[in-house]
Design a protein that fits this description.
By secondary structure, the chain is of the alpha/beta class. Helix content is 44%, strand content 16%. A seven-stranded parallel sheet has the order 3-2-1-4-5-6-7, with helices on both faces. The relative contact order is 0.15.
């Protein structure tokens, strides 16, 4: 039986690769902020698409109602959407700081809140939170981004304890730097010579999703060996 899997940030980067990796064996519900990339993904693989600003509670609530009406339930929610910022705290743009916290952290919380009822209708629901190595280790000039990701780490652990009695599992995935448009979108140029191919991370997440309901992987990290040097 095919699983219905909802992926945020599905228009590009890891979200897009994950949608492509899972499509066919599963029903993919692709969610993103803009319609241009989502339309391109729909044309490429034929999945359903839903533009949504996940940082807005009203938008997420509306999305949940639409998904419930069409599918009745979802088997897996992948909280993947994220934005990047870098720089000293005093130099950070206030609006950018707010956006990073709202998308990376609040967006994952809102998506989980409004889609938990749909996950509860599955025999065993799964939430995969794509965090980051930044949610485990600190680096200079990344205090705001790191705060959003450490928040996701804490949210993942606490939510897992809350919903496990309801047969819902929560997994935190902690990838290192990936070769995605994340940095381009924030106008930060990065050396990608040691970056992970997002397809490898997508396959790792697929491994988690493919596990039977009696197997729980609380957290999983993945880095390029080049990042260890």
């Amino acid at each position: 039986m095919k699983k219905t899997i909802l992926i945020t940030g599905a228009g590009s980067g890891l979200g897009k690769e994950l949608a492509k990796e899972l499509f066919g064996e599963n029903v993919i519900v692709a969610v993103g902020l803009g319609s241009k990339n989502l339309n391109a993904l729909k044309k490429e693989i034929g999945c359903d698409i839903y533009p949504c600003d996940i940082s807005k509670a009203s938008a997420v609530s509306s999305l949940a109602k639409k998904v419930q009406k069409k599918y009745g339930r979802i088997d897996c929610l992948v909280n993947n959407a994220g934005v990047w910022t870098e720089g000293s705290l005093v130099a950070e743009d206030d609006k950018r700081m707010q956006k990073v916290i709202e998308v990376n952290l609040l967006g994952s919380i809102l998506m989980s809140k409004y889609f938990l009822p749909l996950l509860s209708k599955a025999e065993s629901g799964l939430i995969v939170n794509v965090v980051s190595q930044a949610g485990m280790y600190s680096k200079t000039n990344r205090s705001v981004y790191g705060a959003s990701k450490w928040g996701m780490t804490g949210f993942t652990k606490y939510l897992n304890d809350e919903v496990l009695p309801n047969a819902i599992r929560v997994t935190g995935v902690y990838p290192g730097k990936m070769n995605t448009p994340l940095f381009e979108d924030s106008k930060n140029k990065k050396d990608m010579s040691d970056a992970l191919d997002p397809r490898l991370v997508a396959r790792t997440i697929k491994f988690i999703i493919d596990q039977p309901s009696d197997v729980h992987i609380p957290e999983l990290g993945i880095k390029s060996s080049k990042q260890l040097r």
